[in-house]
Amino acid sequence: MLHPTIAPAFETALEKTLASAPPAPRRVAVFDGDNTLWDGDIGEAFLRWLASSGHLVDPPADVWGEYERRVAVDRSAGYGWAVQVMAGLPADRVARWAAAFAYAWPSWRAGMRAILDRIAAAGVETWLVSASSALVVRAAAPFMGIPQDRVLGMEVESSGGLLTDRLIRPLTCAGGKVEAIRRTIGLRPVAAFGDSFGDLEMLEDASAAFVVGQRSRPNAAFLDLAAVRGWPVNVF
Question: Measured between alpha carbons, how far is 77 from 50 in angstroms, rounded to an integer?
């Protein structure tokens, strides 16, 4: 047993996937972060902290309201704006804040860490692909055993040491996750793990898809889709 929180059928499906993956010089598995590897959205929480701490340089009067409005119109653009609003801040300072924020994050999933460790032990690279800020997700990755240089997330260019509002594309949400994987990793994943429709294209593109559900906030429509597709589901 990998971990008490992992259902036997989920673990069996994972073992079959690892056993059937063709040998190759490199094999990869990709994971969403928020509500997949950990409970909650660390990118949104970091945005709230930056706003409430008065760190943002020229924020709108209602940062959270503006973020929600933009996400409601276009999720990819809204998640990108959560990074753009950090424009004008020193990149190294935000990275230090993100590291401290990740260190205090209370919601790591031990069961998912066990899965990551099992996949890594099989010689498969583990990558984190998130629609949250790359800075905070990169800081979170080591707590789940993923190297920081294997993180893809929402990111802006820097100039003179300061963050700008120029998004680096592709935006790592929905189909943009697949594009980022192909462009940066260059391999089709042997397995993908996600919890929502923002991960759908990434799950569809992988050789095997695994869905993470939440007992406290079930995504009924996505779980129904997983059932139709025959994708293994583990509920935390």
Answer: 19
Structure token pair of residue 53: 């701490």
Q: Full-prediction pTM beyond 0.85?
A: yes
Q: pLDDT tens-digit profile of 9-30?
A: 999 999 999 999 988 899 999 9
**Other Cβ atoms within 10 Å of 185 Cβ, number:** 17
Does 198 score more than 90 pLDDT?
yes
Q: What's the per-residue H, E or C state across 39-60? A: CCCHHHHHHHHHHHCCCCCCCC
Domain range annotation of the chain: 8-235
Per-residue exposure over 117-155, b if at least 16 CB sit within 10 Å of its own CB, e if not: ebbeebebbbbbbbbbbbbbbbbbbeebbbeeebbbbbb
Just give the CATH number of 8-235: 3.40.50.1000
